Amino acid sequence: MDSDDEVNSVISSEDLGGDADSSVGDFGGDDSDVDFDELQEHDGFDTQEKDLKPRKKAFEIDHKVYSPEDIQRQQDDQVAEVATLLEQPHESTAILLRYGRWNKERLIEQYMDNQEEVLDKAGLGQDVQKSPPRIEVIDGFVCDICCEDTPGLRSFALKCGHRFCVDCYRQYLAQKIRGEGEAARIKCPGDGCNRVVDAKSLDILVRTDLTDRYHQLLMRTYVDDKENLKWCPSPNCVYAIECGVRKRDLTRVVPTVFCDCKHSFCFGCTLPDHQPCPCSLVKLWLKKCEDDSETANWISANTKECPKCHSTIEKNGGCNHMTCRKCRNEFCWMCMGMWSEHGTSWYNCSRFEEKSGLDARDAQARSRQSLERYLHYFNRYHNHEQSAKLDKDIFHKTEKKMTLLQSASDMSWIEVQFLEEASQALQRCRQTLKWTYAFAYYLARNNETEIFEDNQKNLELAVEDLSEMFEKPTDQLSGLRVEMMDKTTFCNRRRIVVLDDTAKRLKEGVSYNLHFYGFGVVC
Amino acid sequence: MAANKRIMKELGEINTNPPPGCAIRLAKEDDINLWDVTMDGPQDSPYTGGKFHIQIVLPKEYPFKPPVLTFRTKIYHPNVTNDDKGAMCLGMLRADEWKPPNKIVDVLKLVRAVLAAPQPDDAVEAGIANEFKTDRKAFDKTAQDWVKKYAK
Ligand SMILES: [Zn+2]
Ligand SMILES: [Zn+2]
Ligand SMILES: [Zn+2]
Ligand SMILES: [Zn+2]
To answer: Which SMART domains match (chain A) (predicted)?
Structure first.
């Protein structure tokens, strides 16, 4: 999805001042039938622009990427705007807005209602001294923290008048900012005083390394306070993403967003892109894999149930003559039949069709059905995860080979780009396929699920074809160029079909297999 | 060490004018960051007649970080952990409520007040807190039994 060309049309910084909890007026409020196509029309596309662009796919979500500078500017703009309205200095307005969790409208309303109470709660209680805080030397001053009373001791007090020596003030601020990670609500050190330390006072007192950290923490709180902003979870990435999808929408939409650092993630749960599987199922599935996969794999390979008492029996040697430790039943590992029916054919089961064995295998099959069902989906899920990694390795190798080929043939760098595009398509498609299997595990059986599985199968076939071409030796790759480009396009198209179809279904409401979806059900 | 002057001053003040029911001394001569307190159970509380050994550790960031307080004598109380730590974390003892001008003497006054009047809504022992709220008689009985058993 190309998010770049939407940048200018998404949400202005003015809208950012909206209610973190409930200002979804522009997103349809509490109406549970919000249509996401409709929703996006509120985001400021003018009709002309919309006519020029291809219609947005059902699975694409409007979002915007912000740099730390953008976020700082947003805050500054809002502070400036509210400061004028409330006739308060910028520093106090910033404290008020942080107190009000950047919910401009609600803050202004409360402020107009009861100015004194809001100021007090925000940590801007009554001023004792009117002049702006500065470092002073006061005769006869004793610091109540360190008990120093040396003449000429430099001290500082906020407008509340609680005065402490500069050294103690600095240590206090360092402890709060570095030690406790506090920024927005650092109070005056005075006993019982709720006055909040403002950024200007901080600048007077401490060095830039601490103020830098302070502003970093403030920025973090700002993004955390706003429901429509989230940090990109990629390590070392400094960008934040804005997206209008709310928590309650997450059963009907999987909001994959794309950061400028190239990382794509889910705005709902911040895990890597997991379209088309909704967040709640992803969570359920990952938990299940964590709980089950190790044991399930091992159990299916190494144990069987005793056909008589159904306790699990581990096969610990090559011999097929099993004796249940619990009920002493003797049976054959291969056919699950009673050992007595085997006569003297030791170590060699040739009686697969015996009645007792058939019945036992039936019962076993039933009790293992759910486990096998899970393994069916898990193995495919896991396989695409693994293959995605392999494809990446192959690409790195191929990239090297192509560089060689490029110097040996007359192909240009542009002409070998098809390989990178194919590789990216493979990664993307496998990512999608992987999650289609987790999703399918929870789906109820119906016509729509069959359509879904057809789409899934088509994508899978296309992906395996392309993946196979990738493994061809370097000297064949140049000859496969056109074919691979076609396949790449085809894969991407098949992927869009899967995502588009599921996104539409999610919006309408999907029926799940409650047996697997429900709580406390272990399969 | 700027903190030393402060701690020495507190120690001097607290020894000339100790808070009611408290005897304070350093646990070791050469360590001013480790205080030993013996606190009498407040009258009109199930702890009356008991003597409680409380240890106070002043972190090296003191007074910018709150002191850490532990009951070395077992006590049946909703605000003291019922384990070998005997930890108490309440009001001004919490990092976000502690202010550097607060003093140990204030802390001891708070502890004694909490012994006299437990704060079940701020409890570390939910079971004891619940008993305190719903069956005061049973609570008082166990608390007194523990005093006889551990705090004599
Ligand atoms: Zn000082
Ligand atoms: Zn103050
Ligand atoms: Zn990023
Ligand atoms: Zn998610």
So the answer is: IBR (SM00647), RING (SM00184)
Q: What is the CATH number of the domain that holds A185?
A: 3.30.40
Best of B99, B107, B110 to mutate (most A CBs within 10 Å, chain A): B99
Report the pLDDT value the prediction gives residue A26, as an integer from 0 to 100.
36
Reported pTM: 0.69
Its domain, for residue A518, covers: 1-59+279-302+368-523
Domain interval for residue B73: 2-150
Complete DSSP assignment for B75-127: ---TTB-SSSS-BB--GGGSTTT--TT--HHHHHHHHHHHHHS--GGG-S-HH
Q: Which two tokens stand for residue A381?
A: 């899920």
A interface with B, Cβ–Cβ < 8 A, is 144-148, 164, 167-168, 171-172, 175, 179-180, 182, 187, 189-193
Contacts with A242 (C-beta within 8 Å, 6 or more apart), sequence order? A10, A11, A16, A63, A64, A65, A66, A228, A229
- Is A122 inside a domain boundary? no
Q: Which residue has the tokens 């929703």?
A: A39
Instruction: Say yes or no to pLDDT of B134 above 90.
Output: yes
Structural domain contains residue A121: no
- Round to whole Å and give the CA distance between A491 and A426: 8
What is the chain B residue with the closest CA to A173?
Answer: B64
Residue at A252 is within a domain? yes
Asked if A432 and A291 sit in the same domain, the reply is yes
Which DSSP string corresponds to A488-517? Answer: HHHHHHHHHHHHHHHHHHHHH---B-HHHH
The ipTM value here is 0.88
Question: How many other CB atoms are there within 10 angstroms of residue B36's CB atom?
Answer: 15
The helix or strand, by DSSP H or E, that contains position A118, with its residue range, turns out to be: helix A115-122
Domain count, chain A: 4
What's the whole-number mean pLDDT along residues A120-148? 89
Helix (H, G, I), strand (E, B) or coil at A443: strand
Cβ atoms of B99 and B141 within 8 Å: the answer is: no
Three-state SS at A201: helix
By C-alpha distance, the chain A residue nearest B8 is A147
> What would the two tokens of residue A206 be?
């401490």
**Is residue A471 situated within a structural domain?**
yes
Residue of A146, A160, A188 for testing the chain B interface, max B β-carbons within 10 Å: A146
Close Cβ partners of A394 (under 8 Å, ≥ 6 residues apart): A423, A470, A471
Whether residues A352 and A374 share a domain: the answer is: no
Are A486 and A388 part of one and the same domain? yes
Q: CB–CB of A146 and B61 under 8 A?
A: no
Q: Can you give the CATH number for the domain in which B139 is found?
A: 3.10.110.10
CA of B87 to the centre of ligand 4 (A): 40
Tell if the CB–CB gap between A172 and B100 is shorter than 8 Å. yes
Boundary-marking domain end, from A175, A206, A237: A206
Task: Confirm if A463 and A426 have CB atoms less than 8 A apart.
Answer: yes
Residues A202 and A131 both lie in one domain: yes
Q: What percent of chain A has pLDDT over 70?
A: 74
CB pairs under 8 A between A and B: 43
A145/B101 touch (CB, cutoff 8 Å), yes or no: yes
First to last CA, chain A: 37
The Å distance, Cα B99 to ligand 2 centre, comes to: 11
CA–CA separation, A325 vs A109, rounded Å?
74
Query: What total number of domains does chain B contain?
Result: 1
**Is residue A113 pLDDT above 90, yes or no?**
yes
The catalytic residue among A279, A319, A324, A491 is A319
pLDDT in tens, A416-473: 788 888 888 988 999 999 999 999 988 888 888 899 999 999 999 899 888 888 777 7
